[in-house]
Amino acid sequence: MSETVLIDSVIPHTDVVKLTPRIGAEIRSIKLSGALPAPAIAAINSLLLEHKVIFFRDQGHLDDIEQERFAMRFGTPAPNPTYDASKGTMSIIAIDSACPPFPTNFWHIDWSCLDAYPKISILRGVVIPPIGGDTVWSNTAAAYLDLPRPLQRLADDLWAVHSLDVVMRPTEADRNPDDEALIRARFETEHPVVRVHPETGERTLVLGAYARRFVDLSKYDGQRLLELYESHITAPENTIRWNWKQGDVAMWDNRATMHYAANDYGEQRRVVRRATLEGEVPVSIDGRCSVARVKLIKQPPTNVV
């Protein structure tokens, strides 16, 4: 009731519907825009911190410009790290099944290979297949609390190396006939496995597909430990699955969630457009900050094939 009163006091008739006990809420009867009053933005942010991921149906009026204006009310847009800076920055990117930059059907935290990875992601459904294409989110704060105390203590002391090493070809829309070079991007960061959330003070787990190995552990031991922790993160009672419709918007706290985009829609096309907001460098429970080991974007010579 208090949630509804909070946002209903600034936007009348708005309803908040909790979707699962641990994660997810739908905010109904609200029209998103960059012109929402400051109290409404504060209320949405509070709901986001509490529920970790929030959903808005019927936002078909949004285009890239208005999606970016709305996103900017919560922070500074974060450009796609692999976008060619010589062509400008891109704070809204398309995730298009027809020409994906790389797969998204794995559990991950957006860009956790960066030291200050995004704090919030805002995703808009543009082309949605009639069947399939759901996205699943998990609550990494609840997962930490669920760990047996010995596993919590171990996680508190662990650090993991998160990395991305990818070769990207330009899309048809961006391709320059005079520049067929591949773009290579490599990022690598050491993160604490447990970070302290800068707004809520919660302890959240920082793992996912970008986590390649644990510091000071063998690959064999680390892989089994990673599987153990991620089994707690992705336990069904700790997740919410969203069935997309065109015009939907999902907004999640990237510091307290992991997510997975199901690739179960065959040859049907799926297009979503995402804005991300600059985040803070994670801090461990003993006050140490994440450390970027490699941050590299380069274009090899044009004779690379």
General description of the model:
By secondary structure, the protein is α+β, with helices and mostly antiparallel strands. Helices cover 20% and strands 29% of the residues. The strands form four sheets. Strands 1-2-3-13-5-15-4 form a seven-stranded mixed sheet, covered by helices on one side. It is globular. The model is unreliable at 84-89, 173-182 and 301-305 (pLDDT under 50).
CATH architecture: 4-Layer Sandwich
CATH topology: Double-stranded beta-helix
Q: Which CATH first-tier class would you pick?
A: Alpha Beta
Name the helix and strand elements from N-terminus to C-terminus, one letter apiece: HEEHEHEEEHHEEEEEHEEEEE
Biggest sheet character: 7 strands, mixed
The outline comes out as: globular
Q: Cα-atom Rg, whole angstroms?
A: 19 Å
Q: Strand-residue fraction?
A: 25-35%
Oligomer kind:
single chain
Name the structural class: alpha+beta
Q: What gap, in angstroms, lies between the N and C termini?
A: 59 Å
Q: What count of structural domains?
A: 1
